[in-house]
Amino acid sequence: MIMEQNNYAICTQNLNLWYGSFQALFDVNLNIKEGLITSMIGPSGCGKSTYLRSVNRINERLGYVRIDGSVHVFGHNIYDPAVELVQVRKKIGMVFQRPNPLPISIRDNVLFGHRIHNKGQKFSKPEMEEILEDALRQVLLWDKVKDHLDKKATELSLEEQQKLCIARLLPVRPKILLMDEPCSALDPKGTAAVEELLWDLHGEYTVLIVTHNMSQARRASEECIFMLHGKVMEHNATEDLFVTPKMKETADYIEGRYG
Amino acid sequence: MERTSPAQPTAAEFDRRNLDWYIDKLVQILVFIGGISAIVFIIGIFAFVTIEGAGFLLDDFSFKEFFLSPFWEPSDEDAPEYGILALVAGTASVTGLAMIVAIPFSLGAAIFIGEFATGRTRESLKVLVELLAAIPSVVWGFIGLTIMNPLIIDLFDVPVGLNVLNAGVILGLMAAPIMTSIAEDALKAVPDRYREAAEALGATQWEVIFKTVLPAAKNGLLGAVLLGVGRGFGETMAVLMATGHSVNIPDSLFDPVRALTATIAAELGETAVGSDHYQVLFTIGIFLFLVTFVINLTADLIVRGIRDQ
Fold first, then answer.
1. A-chain residues near B211 (CB < 8 A)
2. Domain CATH for A79
């Protein structure tokens, strides 16, 4: 029964990926629905981070990565030779496992992406301040940092750093947020705060989140993908995947028999 | 069944000193002596230079004359004058020009090696830079004398090619490899996650370098420049050969000058041990030692600072 006609934000067809001679992804076919939070789970080395990192092509900076297949983002193949990486990354923001604010002020961090994507356009000071405040308010960081925006971002706590890393994506207005285990460096309180933030952002953004933490996937996502050995095993509504897994491997993994 | 309990170890057994024990002790002592000797030697050298220069410092030393007089006439029999202003001007002008030459070259090379070159190119360039840093300074001086000298005469139509320009360029080329090497270390110390973060935000390679990597590495880069300055201040042979070695406060690039170091090298052999002239040369030595010490220490502290961050 089709509930509603969802549009797909990311369509992946027969994606194979090699690091040197090691194949990390095997014929991945995934359709990620627009506006939902989709989580990816699976044991270490199953390819979930690799998949995530091939959606904004950040994998390629390693130099020895080879890719076969296609990834369409809103209908455009991002592996087409005519595609500009800068534009891909403008549409697709990424949050990394370890918070990685740049070693510049909080203000410059939030406005970094905005500045590089709006070259030649003049923004007045109040406009910039508004963009800054909006972004920081959205990640619930404004009240904490509004009095020391010129402080170095690397001096913030890890949780605040990670929120800042999300905040700096927002002025660029991406359509998709990729999150690579965004809570793994955070304590339970920080994790809860980031998850809450995810719910606030969802709808407006399509979120694809890789996690090691199965309860997080269960709490914080609407659809869930289980990967194993570089292959997609199961992709379903989170509730169904956890309650009535179709594959034996999925059941074994979520019951903690391996991984 | 009867079981014999194993004998309890005696105190003597715990205190047995075999050959290994003695070798271990010996190695400890040798390593300690080796480690401390460098420090002892440096302190010893400084003490020696100070003692040799002390006579002048205590008796005839006039701060004003020494630093502010441009007249360096140690061989004047009636009224020798020991003013190092012209020599300081010589060293400073040559070092200054050397930095103007070396900074763009070394920064460019460091950025290329650290951020653009990969694999083989990168490794061979690094080896090449280390090799360049090992060229003896007399060879550079030779290049100054035989290649730069006629080249400058030809190009600029000046009577002599041994001058600030010649020595500055030679010294700049000499300092560039070591500065490249340190600057590249500074770039390498910038965590890769900063580059990744900037790239994921859509920055181009230039933006990643100029807006992220260089600001993050600025302390290390400053350290590299300071080490270059220290190198320039202390360099003797190449400067002796390429400056023209004439006491002079330069007012153009084509004026010959004389450096502090070169003065010591050229004159020390001809002075009577213990004479005023001899002692003044050692006073210059103390001055050079202090200046290079402060420059190198500052550079070192700055470079260390980024590592601790």
1. 112, 116
2. 3.40.50.300
Residue-wise pLDDT tens digits, B116-135:
888 899 999 999 999 999 99
Ramachandran region of residue B196, left (φ > 0), alpha (ψ -120 to 50) or beta? alpha
Instruction: Identify the closest residue of chain B to A57 by CA–CA distance.
Output: B200
| Count of the separate structural domains present in chain A | 1
B213 burial (CB, 10 Å; 0-12 / 13-18 / 19+) is buried
Read off the pLDDT of residues A141-157 as tens digits, 9 standing for 90 and up. Answer: 888 888 888 888 888 88
Could you give the C-alpha distances from A178 to A13, B49, B217, in angstroms and in order?
19, 65, 29
Contact A58 B196 (CB under 8 A): yes
Cβ atoms of B202 and A113 closer than 8 Å: yes
Element (H, E) at B45: helix B19-58
For residues B101 and B130, is the Cβ–Cβ distance under 8 A? no
Whether residue A172 and residue B201 make contact (CB cut-off 8 A), yes or no, is yes
Q: For tokens 């690579």, what's the residue? A: A180
Residue A134 lies in a domain: no
**pTM listed for this prediction:** 0.80
Q: pLDDT (tens digit, 9 = 90+) per residue, B192-228?
A: 989 999 999 989 889 999 999 998 898 889 999 999 9
What's the pLDDT tens digit per position in B227-263? 999 988 999 999 999 998 889 899 999 999 999 999 9
Q: Is residue A34 part of a domain?
A: yes
Domain annotation covers residue A149: no
CB B236 within 8 Å of CB B262? yes
Mean pLDDT, all residues of chain A = 87
Whether the CB-CB separation of A136 and A142 falls below 8 Å is answered with yes
% of chain A exceeding 90 in pLDDT: 28
CA distances to B4, B5 from B1, in Å: 10, 13
Output the pLDDT for position A85. Answer: 87
Q: How far apart are CA A182 and CA A164, in angstroms?
A: 12
DSSP letter, residue B78 = S
pLDDT digits (tens, 9 = 90+) for B158-183: 998 999 999 999 999 999 999 999 99
What CATH architecture applies to the domain B88-260? Answer: Orthogonal Bundle (1.10)
Please answer whether residues B194 and A103 qualify as being in contact, where contact means their C-beta atoms are separated by less than 8 angstroms. Answer: yes
Contacts of A104 in chain B (CB under 8 A): 215
Distance between start and end Cα atoms, chain A: 33
Q: Which domain holds residue A218?
A: 8-100+177-254
Q: Do A96 and B197 touch (CB under 8 A)?
A: yes
Residue A2 has pLDDT above 50, yes or no: no
Domain ranges of chain B: 88-260
